[in-house]
Each structure stands twice: as C-alpha cells, then as structure tokens.
Amino acid sequence: MGKTFLATSELLGTIMGAGFLAIPFVVAQSGFAIGLLHLILIGSLITIVMLYLGEIVLRTKEYHQLPGYAEKYLGQQGKRWMSFAVLFGISTALLAYLIAEGESISVLLFGSPIQSLLSGIIFWALLSLLSLGGIRTLKKGESIGVILVFVMMISILVLFASKINLTNLTTIHAEHLFTPFGIILFAFLAFTALPEVKLILRNDKHLLKRSIIISHLLAFTLYVLFTLLVIGFKGTATPEIATFALGKPFILLGMITMFTSYLSLSMSMMDTLHFDFKKTRSYAWIITIAIPIILYVLLNIFNQATFTTVLSVGGIISGGITALLILAMVRRAKEHGNSSSPYSMPSNKIFLAILALIFIIGAITELISLLL
User: Fold this and answer.
1) What is the mean pLDDT of residues 120-127?
2) What is d(CA 45, CA 237) in angstroms, rounded to the nearest whole number?
3) Virtual CA dihedral for 246, 247, 253, 254, nearest 10 degrees?
4) Which residues contact 354 (CB under 8 A, 6 or more apart)?
5) Residue 144's pLDDT is what?
6) What is the rounded distance in angstroms from the CA atom of residue 19 to the CA atom of residue 9?
7) Nearest to 190 by CA among 16, 371, 369
8) What is the C-alpha to C-alpha distance for residues 186 and 129, in angstroms, rounded to an integer?
9) pTM of the model
10) How many Cβ atoms from other residues are within 10 Å of residue 175's Cβ?
11) Are 33 and 172 in contact (CB under 8 A)?
12) Distances 215 to 100, 208, 209, 233, 336 between C-alpha atoms, Å
C-alpha cells in the first residue's frame, strides 16, 4: 500500500497541475454538459493510452525517459518526434505554471496580479533549487501536495455546495463545442511521470496498472466536482484561474497543485536530458530552469502571457504527438520487449487506429478554433 500510495501520488500530482485550474473557465464557455462529455471522453482515452505506456515501460528492462523508449521501438525518427513533444510539452507546462503561480501569489499577497512577474520569478527560483533534491524531494512533495489538495477540495465542497445556482449548469453554447478539448487534454497528461513511477515501484511492477487507474479516476472525480462547484457558483463569470473566484484561502489550492506538478515535470525534463541525451546533471538542470523563465519574462515584456492559450497549445501539440507515438510503439514493445509485463493491453490495429484518429480530429479542430 505504501508504494501504491507513492506511485499514485506521483501520477496524481503530475496530472493535477495548472490545467486543473483552467477547466472551469473553458467549460463555462461551452456549458457544463459539453464539458462533462469532454472530461469523460478525454479522461478515458488518456487512461487507456497511459496503460499502453505502462505496458511499454514494463516490457523494457532498461530505464529510459519517453524519447529513449521511442528510440528503442521506433528508431531515431521516433526519438526526434518524442523529444520535441516531451520538451515542448514540459516547457509550455512550466511556463503556464509560472504565469498562474505568479498571478496567484500576487493576488494572495497584494490583492491583484500587478506584481505577478516578480512573484513568478520568486516561485521559479524556489522550485529551481528544490529540483536539485532529486527523487527524494519528488516523493515527499507529491505525497504532501496530494493530501493537501484533498483537504482543500473538501473545504470547497463544504463552503460552496449550498451556493450553486443550477441555472449556471444547464446552459449550453454549441458554438464552443470544442473549446474545452485542449485544456482538458492537458489536464490529464502525466506521460512523463511513468518512468519515475517505475523507479518508485522497482520490483513491484504489478502495482503500476492499479496506480494508473486509481490516479486517473481520482483526477476525473476531482475535476468534475471542482468544475461543478465553480461554474455552479460563478457561471459565465468564472475567471481564467478558477480559484480566484473562491477567495484567497482557495488560491492556495492552485499554488499547491502547481508546486507539485512543477517539481515533478522539472525532474522529468532533467532525467530526459540526462538519461536519453547523455547530458550531465548540471547541464540538464540549467537547461530545465532556463527555458521557462526566459519565455516567461519575454511573454510578460510583450504582454502575451495568456494562461489558457499556453495550456491549450501545449496540450494539443505535446499530448497529441506523444499519444500517437505511444500507440505506434505498443505492438513493437509486445514483440521486441526484453522484460515481462503483469498485464497486456489489446493491440488490435483497428482499435489503435480509431484511438489515433480521435486524437488527430480533436487536435485539428481545437487548433483551428484557436487560430480563428
């Protein structure tokens, strides 16, 4: 149970990052019913793809980050595409966390986001130092973060359940049918965490499937509950960062979820550069902390730091490409893997093609809506 808790905490802490805070905003634009359908469909799809990735990880004796698995089963071209997807995804996620954390800290301390740039830089400096702590820091941060998230969610339920206006939950805006797709896709992504979970579980690999399913069920439940409460309370007035609608005590919820996710993703990016690109730990750390802060400062200078746009683009491009590559690796891992897996996912070509097609159609539709 101890290892299951640590593995689930690592996955859940990575899943529930900045996307968690943006879901009510985009769902408020489409309507709760449409948003719920997105949560069910995308949550189910990502869980299935995560189980595929789990099998790939278990069937590979060596330790890799995602680009290493892509190289083993798809060759150099696969590694290049996976490297782009992972590094782009982590960079946009870290950037989004800096934007949201900066605004959250500023609102919490100063009553407005006027000091968000300075607050974001302070958050970046703190997390950059913590990322040097390695896997031990990660384990502690994820476990504490997940416990605090549940405490905060119970508090929100107790305080705001009676303030729900059912009219806010029955409105539908069909013209925004695909608006929630990118944000919700991003909100369920935790592909980069699975190699870390493999290290946590070590010889208890039979616990991986259970950890994946539990973490995604918990994330889905919390997303639905949080979205229902916020939209039921604020309706179309739901802010871009949802916790701003609930008052200063609950801004801490967003800060906690972003804290744990930022730390987890930083570790994953460092490991990717170290294990799969053979870079030194010092070099990997410098690159990991440098990219998001440079982008953050530049976007603030040009006044282009848009929280939901960064999340949506990151989810569509990184999540879409990564999912497609995972689906492409499954059959090869079953045939050429050098280790055993305690579970086996169906690998019918038609089923895999249908899953891939759903991701492609959803991503193209959302990108078109963002450009228009």
Assistant:
1) 91
2) 30
3) 90
4) none
5) 67
6) 17
7) 16
8) 26
9) 0.89
10) 10
11) yes
12) 23, 11, 10, 27, 29
